[in-house]
Design brief:
The complex is a heterodimer. Chain A is 9% helix and 39% strand. Chain A is mainly beta. The longest helix of chain A has 18 residues, at 21-38. By secondary structure, chain B is mainly beta. Chain B contains one helix and ten strands. Chain B is elongated, with a radius of gyration of 25 Å. The longest helix of chain B has 19 residues, at 21-39. Helix content of chain B is 9%, strand content 38%. The chains are: A mainly beta, B mainly beta. The interface between A and B is large, with 55 and 70 residues.
Protein backbone atom coordinates (compact mmCIF):
# COMPACT_ATOMS: atom_id res chain seq x y z
CA UNK A 1 0.00 0.00 0.00
CA UNK A 2 1.35 3.41 -0.92
CA UNK A 3 2.13 5.81 1.89
CA UNK A 4 -0.48 8.42 2.74
CA UNK A 5 2.03 11.25 2.27
CA UNK A 6 5.30 11.69 0.45
CA UNK A 7 8.13 12.04 2.98
CA UNK A 8 9.04 15.70 3.12
CA UNK A 9 11.78 17.53 4.94
CA UNK A 10 10.42 20.92 3.88
CA UNK A 11 6.94 20.54 5.32
CA UNK A 12 5.46 22.41 7.05
CA UNK A 13 6.69 25.54 5.34
CA UNK A 14 7.60 28.68 7.25
CA UNK A 15 4.60 30.44 5.80
CA UNK A 16 2.06 27.82 6.90
CA UNK A 17 -0.40 29.06 9.52
CA UNK A 18 0.10 28.07 13.13
CA UNK A 19 -3.40 26.71 13.15
CA UNK A 20 -2.16 23.86 10.96
CA UNK A 21 0.41 22.68 13.51
CA UNK A 22 -1.79 19.96 14.95
CA UNK A 23 -2.49 18.52 11.53
CA UNK A 24 1.21 18.66 10.69
CA UNK A 25 2.15 16.76 13.83
CA UNK A 26 -0.47 14.10 13.10
CA UNK A 27 0.99 13.83 9.64
CA UNK A 28 4.43 13.14 11.09
CA UNK A 29 2.98 10.40 13.26
CA UNK A 30 1.26 8.78 10.30
CA UNK A 31 4.33 9.09 8.07
CA UNK A 32 6.59 7.57 10.68
CA UNK A 33 4.15 4.80 11.51
CA UNK A 34 3.67 3.79 7.88
CA UNK A 35 7.37 3.68 7.10
CA UNK A 36 8.27 1.69 10.19
CA UNK A 37 5.47 -0.72 9.37
CA UNK A 38 7.13 -1.32 6.01
CA UNK A 39 10.16 -2.49 8.00
CA UNK A 40 8.01 -4.88 9.99
CA UNK A 41 7.72 -2.71 13.06
CA UNK A 42 4.29 -1.71 14.37
CA UNK A 43 4.68 1.42 16.50
CA UNK A 44 1.17 1.00 17.86
CA UNK A 45 2.11 -2.15 19.79
CA UNK A 46 3.11 -1.90 23.44
CA UNK A 47 5.62 -3.37 23.74
CA UNK A 48 6.68 -3.22 20.15
CA UNK A 49 7.14 -6.63 18.58
CA UNK A 50 10.03 -6.37 16.22
CA UNK A 51 9.81 -8.05 12.89
CA UNK A 52 6.51 -9.43 14.00
CA UNK A 53 5.86 -12.71 12.32
CA UNK A 54 7.90 -15.73 11.62
CA UNK A 55 11.58 -16.08 10.88
CA UNK A 56 12.98 -19.31 9.55
CA UNK A 57 16.33 -21.02 9.77
CA UNK A 58 16.87 -24.00 7.50
CA UNK A 59 19.54 -26.41 8.69
CA UNK A 60 20.76 -28.66 5.89
CA UNK A 61 22.00 -32.15 6.75
CA UNK A 62 25.53 -31.08 5.87
CA UNK A 63 25.52 -29.00 9.03
CA UNK A 64 25.25 -32.17 11.09
CA UNK A 65 28.25 -33.96 12.51
CA UNK A 66 28.24 -37.69 13.07
CA UNK A 67 28.84 -38.57 16.68
CA UNK A 68 27.89 -42.22 16.56
CA UNK A 69 27.26 -44.36 13.55
CA UNK A 70 28.42 -45.53 10.20
CA UNK A 71 31.71 -44.55 8.66
CA UNK A 72 30.19 -44.33 5.19
CA UNK A 73 27.28 -42.18 4.21
CA UNK A 74 25.43 -41.64 0.97
CA UNK A 75 23.45 -38.80 -0.50
CA UNK A 76 20.64 -40.54 -2.30
CA UNK A 77 20.15 -38.37 -5.31
CA UNK A 78 19.23 -41.36 -7.45
CA UNK A 79 15.77 -41.60 -5.98
CA UNK A 80 15.34 -37.88 -6.12
CA UNK A 81 15.20 -37.19 -2.43
CA UNK A 82 18.68 -35.72 -1.99
CA UNK A 83 18.82 -36.84 1.59
CA UNK A 84 21.75 -38.20 3.52
CA UNK A 85 21.64 -41.80 4.58
CA UNK A 86 23.97 -44.18 6.43
CA UNK A 87 25.47 -46.63 4.02
CA UNK A 88 25.69 -49.68 6.21
CA UNK A 89 23.34 -52.06 7.95
CA UNK A 90 20.37 -51.76 10.20
CA UNK A 91 21.21 -49.63 13.17
CA UNK A 92 20.68 -46.29 14.85
CA UNK A 93 22.91 -43.37 13.97
CA UNK A 94 23.28 -40.05 15.74
CA UNK A 95 24.23 -36.72 14.22
CA UNK A 96 24.46 -33.35 15.93
CA UNK A 97 24.31 -29.82 14.59
CA UNK A 98 24.85 -26.56 16.46
CA UNK A 99 21.89 -24.23 16.72
CA UNK A 100 23.10 -21.00 15.10
CA UNK A 101 20.49 -18.55 16.37
CA UNK A 102 20.92 -15.41 18.46
CA UNK A 103 20.28 -15.72 22.16
CA UNK A 104 16.94 -14.40 23.35
CA UNK A 105 14.92 -15.52 20.35
CA UNK A 106 11.92 -17.77 20.82
CA UNK A 107 11.66 -20.99 18.82
CA UNK A 108 8.04 -21.62 17.95
CA UNK A 109 8.16 -24.68 15.70
CA UNK A 110 10.52 -27.31 14.29
CA UNK A 111 9.87 -29.21 11.09
CA UNK A 112 11.82 -32.24 9.89
CA UNK A 113 12.20 -33.29 6.25
CA UNK A 114 12.91 -36.91 5.33
CA UNK A 115 11.75 -40.31 4.23
CA UNK A 116 11.97 -43.56 6.11
CA UNK A 117 12.55 -47.23 5.37
CA UNK A 118 10.03 -49.88 6.31
CA UNK A 119 11.49 -50.17 9.78
CA UNK A 120 13.32 -46.85 9.82
CA UNK A 121 12.63 -43.64 11.66
CA UNK A 122 13.99 -40.12 11.90
CA UNK A 123 13.87 -38.36 15.24
CA UNK A 124 14.86 -34.74 15.78
CA UNK A 125 15.51 -33.47 19.28
CA UNK A 126 16.20 -29.87 20.19
CA UNK A 127 18.73 -30.25 22.99
CA UNK A 128 20.29 -28.07 25.61
CA UNK A 129 23.49 -29.02 27.37
CA UNK A 130 23.75 -27.18 30.68
CA UNK A 131 27.35 -27.04 31.90
CA UNK A 132 26.77 -24.37 34.54
CA UNK A 133 27.43 -26.68 37.47
CA UNK A 134 30.33 -28.45 35.79
CA UNK A 135 28.34 -31.64 35.42
CA UNK A 136 26.64 -32.15 32.12
CA UNK A 137 22.89 -31.69 32.42
CA UNK A 138 21.37 -32.45 29.03
CA UNK A 139 17.72 -31.86 28.39
CA UNK A 140 15.42 -32.31 25.44
CA UNK A 141 13.39 -29.19 24.75
CA UNK A 142 11.36 -30.39 21.77
CA UNK A 143 10.99 -33.53 19.69
CA UNK A 144 9.60 -34.34 16.29
CA UNK A 145 9.80 -37.64 14.42
CA UNK A 146 8.97 -39.26 11.12
CA UNK A 147 7.49 -42.71 11.61
CA UNK A 148 8.50 -45.84 9.70
CA UNK A 149 7.82 -46.45 6.05
CA UNK A 150 7.01 -42.92 5.00
CA UNK A 151 7.60 -41.57 1.55
CA UNK A 152 9.00 -38.05 1.43
CA UNK A 153 7.46 -36.40 4.45
CA UNK A 154 7.51 -33.37 6.71
CA UNK A 155 6.56 -33.59 10.34
CA UNK A 156 6.20 -30.73 12.79
CA UNK A 157 6.38 -30.25 16.50
CA UNK A 158 3.35 -28.00 16.26
CA UNK A 159 3.46 -24.82 18.29
CA UNK A 160 6.24 -24.76 20.88
CA UNK A 161 7.82 -22.03 22.96
CA UNK A 162 11.52 -22.38 23.63
CA UNK A 163 13.37 -19.15 24.43
CA UNK A 164 17.13 -19.37 24.09
CA UNK A 165 18.81 -18.23 27.28
CA UNK A 166 20.54 -14.87 27.01
CA UNK A 167 22.43 -14.84 30.29
CA UNK A 168 25.62 -16.32 28.93
CA UNK A 169 27.77 -14.84 31.66
CA UNK A 170 26.27 -17.17 34.22
CA UNK A 171 24.41 -19.91 32.39
CA UNK A 172 26.64 -22.17 30.33
CA UNK A 173 24.07 -23.46 27.88
CA UNK A 174 24.86 -25.07 24.56
CA UNK A 175 21.92 -25.54 22.21
CA UNK A 176 22.06 -28.05 19.42
CA UNK A 177 19.94 -30.30 17.26
CA UNK A 178 20.18 -34.06 17.50
CA UNK A 179 19.14 -36.25 14.59
CA UNK A 180 18.72 -39.97 15.19
CA UNK A 181 18.39 -42.00 12.02
CA UNK A 182 17.22 -45.57 12.22
CA UNK A 183 18.01 -47.55 9.10
CA UNK A 184 17.13 -51.08 8.08
CA UNK A 185 20.06 -51.52 5.75
CA UNK A 186 18.34 -50.53 2.53
CA UNK A 187 19.44 -46.91 2.51
CA UNK A 188 15.82 -45.86 2.35
CA UNK A 189 15.93 -43.65 5.41
CA UNK A 190 17.01 -40.27 4.17
CA UNK A 191 17.25 -36.96 5.95
CA UNK A 192 17.29 -33.59 4.22
CA UNK A 193 17.32 -31.27 7.22
CA UNK A 194 15.16 -29.26 9.58
CA UNK A 195 13.37 -25.95 9.53
CA UNK A 196 13.32 -23.88 12.68
CA UNK A 197 10.72 -21.16 13.08
CA UNK A 198 11.50 -18.40 15.54
CA UNK A 199 10.66 -14.89 16.66
CA UNK A 200 12.89 -12.14 17.95
CA UNK A 201 11.94 -9.39 20.39
CA UNK A 202 14.26 -6.61 19.39
CA UNK A 203 16.78 -5.59 16.80
CA UNK A 204 19.73 -6.45 19.01
CA UNK A 205 18.93 -10.14 18.99
CA UNK A 206 21.40 -10.85 16.24
CA UNK A 207 24.66 -12.76 16.19
CA UNK B 1 8.03 -0.16 31.03
CA UNK B 2 4.82 0.60 29.22
CA UNK B 3 4.66 3.49 26.80
CA UNK B 4 3.39 6.78 28.18
CA UNK B 5 0.52 6.65 25.72
CA UNK B 6 -0.63 4.52 22.78
CA UNK B 7 0.64 5.67 19.41
CA UNK B 8 -1.87 8.50 18.92
CA UNK B 9 -2.71 8.80 15.28
CA UNK B 10 -5.28 11.46 16.10
CA UNK B 11 -3.10 13.56 18.37
CA UNK B 12 -2.98 16.45 18.66
CA UNK B 13 -6.66 16.94 18.09
CA UNK B 14 -7.80 19.74 15.81
CA UNK B 15 -9.24 21.44 18.87
CA UNK B 16 -5.99 21.62 20.76
CA UNK B 17 -4.92 25.26 21.18
CA UNK B 18 -2.14 26.40 18.92
CA UNK B 19 -0.11 27.55 21.90
CA UNK B 20 0.20 23.86 22.92
CA UNK B 21 2.00 22.92 19.73
CA UNK B 22 5.26 22.78 21.66
CA UNK B 23 3.70 20.30 24.11
CA UNK B 24 2.48 18.17 21.22
CA UNK B 25 5.91 18.10 19.64
CA UNK B 26 7.53 17.10 22.94
CA UNK B 27 4.97 14.30 23.29
CA UNK B 28 5.93 13.13 19.84
CA UNK B 29 9.59 13.09 20.83
CA UNK B 30 8.82 11.07 23.95
CA UNK B 31 6.71 8.61 21.97
CA UNK B 32 9.50 8.07 19.46
CA UNK B 33 12.17 7.70 22.11
CA UNK B 34 10.15 5.14 24.07
CA UNK B 35 9.53 3.03 21.00
CA UNK B 36 13.14 3.17 19.89
CA UNK B 37 14.11 2.02 23.36
CA UNK B 38 12.05 -1.11 22.76
CA UNK B 39 13.62 -1.70 19.38
CA UNK B 40 17.14 -1.02 20.54
CA UNK B 41 17.23 -1.72 24.24
CA UNK B 42 20.16 -0.16 25.99
CA UNK B 43 20.48 2.86 23.75
CA UNK B 44 18.12 5.02 25.76
CA UNK B 45 20.04 8.25 25.61
CA UNK B 46 18.96 10.16 22.53
CA UNK B 47 20.75 13.29 23.67
CA UNK B 48 24.08 11.74 22.75
CA UNK B 49 25.63 12.90 19.48
CA UNK B 50 26.20 10.53 17.85
CA UNK B 51 23.91 8.01 19.51
CA UNK B 52 26.09 5.40 21.07
CA UNK B 53 25.36 1.81 20.18
CA UNK B 54 24.77 -0.17 23.33
CA UNK B 55 27.92 -1.83 24.56
CA UNK B 56 26.11 -5.09 24.70
CA UNK B 57 28.02 -8.02 25.98
CA UNK B 58 27.26 -11.00 23.86
CA UNK B 59 28.04 -14.63 24.31
CA UNK B 60 28.19 -17.14 21.51
CA UNK B 61 28.25 -20.75 22.56
CA UNK B 62 29.93 -23.04 20.07
CA UNK B 63 28.87 -26.59 20.75
CA UNK B 64 31.42 -29.21 19.81
CA UNK B 65 29.19 -30.33 16.93
CA UNK B 66 30.10 -27.06 15.23
CA UNK B 67 33.66 -28.31 14.85
CA UNK B 68 34.96 -30.42 11.98
CA UNK B 69 37.67 -33.02 12.27
CA UNK B 70 40.53 -31.74 10.16
CA UNK B 71 41.63 -34.02 7.35
CA UNK B 72 38.74 -36.42 7.63
CA UNK B 73 35.57 -36.63 5.62
CA UNK B 74 32.06 -36.28 6.92
CA UNK B 75 31.21 -39.30 9.02
CA UNK B 76 34.62 -40.84 8.74
CA UNK B 77 35.74 -39.49 12.07
CA UNK B 78 33.30 -41.51 14.10
CA UNK B 79 34.21 -45.03 15.02
CA UNK B 80 36.23 -47.20 17.28
CA UNK B 81 39.68 -46.92 15.70
CA UNK B 82 42.40 -44.98 17.44
CA UNK B 83 42.26 -41.26 16.80
CA UNK B 84 38.61 -41.36 15.78
CA UNK B 85 35.77 -39.57 17.52
CA UNK B 86 34.30 -41.85 20.13
CA UNK B 87 30.69 -42.83 19.73
CA UNK B 88 30.09 -41.93 23.35
CA UNK B 89 30.43 -38.58 25.08
CA UNK B 90 32.00 -37.97 28.45
CA UNK B 91 30.27 -35.40 30.65
CA UNK B 92 28.50 -34.08 27.57
CA UNK B 93 31.77 -33.59 25.71
CA UNK B 94 33.25 -35.13 22.62
CA UNK B 95 36.32 -37.33 22.98
CA UNK B 96 38.47 -39.54 20.84
CA UNK B 97 39.49 -43.14 21.03
CA UNK B 98 43.13 -43.58 22.04
CA UNK B 99 45.88 -43.83 21.32
CA UNK B 100 46.04 -40.87 19.04
CA UNK B 101 45.08 -37.27 18.55
CA UNK B 102 42.59 -35.38 16.45
CA UNK B 103 42.34 -31.72 15.49
CA UNK B 104 38.91 -30.14 15.37
CA UNK B 105 38.42 -26.85 13.58
CA UNK B 106 35.64 -24.30 13.50
CA UNK B 107 35.10 -20.87 12.07
CA UNK B 108 34.14 -18.27 14.65
CA UNK B 109 31.34 -16.50 12.85
CA UNK B 110 31.31 -13.07 14.42
CA UNK B 111 30.93 -9.95 12.26
CA UNK B 112 33.74 -7.61 11.34
CA UNK B 113 33.77 -4.69 13.74
CA UNK B 114 33.06 -6.87 16.75
CA UNK B 115 35.57 -7.16 19.55
CA UNK B 116 36.43 -10.53 21.01
CA UNK B 117 36.83 -10.01 24.73
CA UNK B 118 37.84 -13.55 25.57
CA UNK B 119 37.04 -17.15 24.74
CA UNK B 120 36.51 -19.92 27.26
CA UNK B 121 37.00 -23.60 26.64
CA UNK B 122 34.79 -26.03 28.49
CA UNK B 123 36.35 -29.40 29.04
CA UNK B 124 37.75 -32.05 31.31
CA UNK B 125 40.79 -34.29 31.01
CA UNK B 126 41.84 -37.63 32.45
CA UNK B 127 45.26 -39.19 32.90
CA UNK B 128 47.22 -39.29 29.64
CA UNK B 129 44.81 -36.98 27.86
CA UNK B 130 44.92 -33.31 27.01
CA UNK B 131 42.98 -30.63 25.19
CA UNK B 132 44.70 -27.74 23.45
CA UNK B 133 42.67 -24.76 22.35
CA UNK B 134 43.94 -22.17 19.89
CA UNK B 135 42.28 -19.05 18.57
CA UNK B 136 43.79 -18.09 15.25
CA UNK B 137 43.51 -15.15 12.91
CA UNK B 138 44.24 -15.57 9.23
CA UNK B 139 44.40 -12.10 7.78
CA UNK B 140 43.88 -12.27 4.04
CA UNK B 141 44.29 -8.73 2.78
CA UNK B 142 47.71 -8.57 1.17
CA UNK B 143 49.67 -11.73 0.26
CA UNK B 144 51.56 -13.35 1.81
CA UNK B 145 48.77 -13.82 4.31
CA UNK B 146 49.62 -13.99 7.95
CA UNK B 147 48.44 -16.38 10.60
CA UNK B 148 48.45 -15.06 14.13
CA UNK B 149 47.64 -16.84 17.34
CA UNK B 150 45.32 -14.69 19.42
CA UNK B 151 45.18 -17.10 22.33
CA UNK B 152 46.24 -20.60 23.23
CA UNK B 153 45.91 -22.81 26.24
CA UNK B 154 46.59 -26.39 27.12
CA UNK B 155 44.32 -28.27 29.46
CA UNK B 156 46.79 -30.73 30.89
CA UNK B 157 46.09 -34.29 31.95
CA UNK B 158 43.86 -34.95 34.95
CA UNK B 159 42.20 -31.54 35.05
CA UNK B 160 38.71 -31.39 36.52
CA UNK B 161 35.79 -30.12 34.47
CA UNK B 162 36.05 -26.39 34.11
CA UNK B 163 35.67 -23.24 32.08
CA UNK B 164 39.12 -22.21 30.96
CA UNK B 165 39.95 -18.81 29.56
CA UNK B 166 42.08 -19.39 26.46
CA UNK B 167 43.95 -16.18 27.26
CA UNK B 168 44.42 -17.41 30.82
CA UNK B 169 42.41 -14.44 32.00
CA UNK B 170 44.46 -11.78 30.26
CA UNK B 171 41.74 -11.19 27.69
CA UNK B 172 41.98 -11.33 23.93
CA UNK B 173 40.49 -7.89 23.29
CA UNK B 174 40.78 -8.07 19.53
CA UNK B 175 38.56 -6.12 17.16
CA UNK B 176 37.89 -8.10 14.03
CA UNK B 177 38.88 -6.19 10.91
CA UNK B 178 38.28 -6.75 7.24
CA UNK B 179 40.22 -9.71 5.91
CA UNK B 180 40.18 -11.64 9.16
CA UNK B 181 39.26 -15.29 9.28
CA UNK B 182 38.94 -15.95 12.99
CA UNK B 183 38.87 -19.62 13.76
CA UNK B 184 39.57 -22.13 16.48
CA UNK B 185 41.49 -25.36 16.55
CA UNK B 186 41.03 -27.88 19.31
CA UNK B 187 43.51 -30.72 19.60
CA UNK B 188 42.23 -33.74 21.48
CA UNK B 189 44.93 -36.16 22.57
CA UNK B 190 44.54 -39.50 24.26
CA UNK B 191 47.51 -41.77 24.78
CA UNK B 192 45.45 -44.36 26.61
CA UNK B 193 44.08 -47.31 24.69
CA UNK B 194 40.38 -46.94 24.00
CA UNK B 195 38.14 -44.39 25.69
CA UNK B 196 39.22 -42.22 28.59
CA UNK B 197 37.19 -39.94 30.86
CA UNK B 198 37.85 -36.69 29.06
CA UNK B 199 35.74 -34.47 26.88
CA UNK B 200 35.38 -31.14 25.13
CA UNK B 201 31.94 -29.56 25.32
CA UNK B 202 32.62 -26.42 23.32
CA UNK B 203 33.65 -22.79 23.48
CA UNK B 204 32.03 -19.71 24.95
CA UNK B 205 32.93 -16.60 22.96
CA UNK B 206 32.53 -13.33 24.85
CA UNK B 207 32.33 -10.35 22.50
CA UNK B 208 30.93 -6.91 21.82
CA UNK B 209 29.17 -6.26 18.56
CA UNK B 210 28.09 -2.97 17.05
CA UNK B 211 24.32 -2.67 16.99
CA UNK B 212 22.45 -3.41 13.80
CA UNK B 213 25.49 -4.39 11.78
CA UNK B 214 25.49 -7.50 9.63
CA UNK B 215 22.06 -8.66 10.70
Amino acid sequence: MAYTNVWSTTSPANGDPASGAAADIRKVRVDLYERMLSLGIDLSNDPIIVLDGDNYLYVHWSQFQVIAGASLWTVNIGVNHYGVSPDTGAASYTMLAPLMLPRGVEITEIVVFGKTATSGTITINLKRLDMTSGSAVPSTLATVAIAADQNQKTETTGAISVTLDSTGATNLYFYYVECILVENGTGDTQFQGVKIKYERDNLLQVI
Amino acid sequence: MSHTRPWPFLSPSPNRPSNEADDAIRELRVDIEERMAHLLPGIGNWTADPIVAPAFTRYMFMHYSQFRPFGQLFGAAAGTAAGKISGTEFNGGVRIVGSGSLTLQADIQIPVGSTIVDIDLLGVTAANTSIVGNILKLNAVIPPYTLTTLATRTIAASTAQGTFSLSSGAGIDYEIVEGDFIHATIVLSNTNVGNADFGFQGLRVHYFAPALRYV
